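Incident log, support desk, overnight shift.

02:14 A customer reports that sequence design results differ from what the structure should imply. Their input is reproduced verbatim below. On-call engineer (initials T.W.) acknowledged and began investigating.
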């Protein structure tokens, strides 16, 4: 019977499955639906993040920086911190980065540990791309890299 007294920890558990449909109808903070949701501080937080994705992204970034400052390392892929999958989030952000000029790179490199991690990631990504290119070149000449050695 313990499970009956658990606190809901997702917005869907609080509002029900129709939450996403209701949320899509909100355009701004002056909508009547927004004011109905805003009576609950947890729900208000989710709706505010929905209306302002940049604010939501900055919360994740701040949580990442806090993790790095606390543990003096960058989180691994499965790392959870403050009830968030901060390692998974960082991995997803890395996938969006192709060069140091990308806006995601610029926003994340404010922390030196994250910058070092992203620089290493970009170097490895460039090496993978150059290997893929050299394999493509060799395959167009009907021999493989392995046969060259």
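02:41 Re-run completed on a clean worker. Output:
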């Amino acid at each position: 019977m313990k499970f009956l007294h658990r606190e809901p920890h997702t917005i869907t558990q609080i509002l029900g499955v129709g939450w996403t449909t209701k949320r899509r109808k909100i355009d701004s903070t002056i909508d009547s639906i927004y004011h109905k949701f805003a009576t609950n501080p947890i729900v208000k937080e989710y709706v505010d993040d929905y209306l302002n994705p940049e604010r939501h992204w900055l919360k994740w970034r701040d949580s990442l920086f806090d993790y790095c400052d606390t543990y003096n390392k960058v989180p691994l892929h499965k790392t959870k911190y403050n009830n968030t999958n901060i390692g998974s989030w960082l991995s997803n952000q890395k996938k969006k980065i192709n060069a140091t000029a990308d806006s995601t790179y610029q926003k994340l490199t404010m922390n030196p540990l994250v910058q070092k991690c992203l620089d290493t990631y970009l170097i490895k990504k460039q090496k993978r791309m150059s290997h893929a290119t050299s394999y493509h070149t060799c395959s167009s000449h009907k021999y493989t890299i392995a046969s060259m050695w």
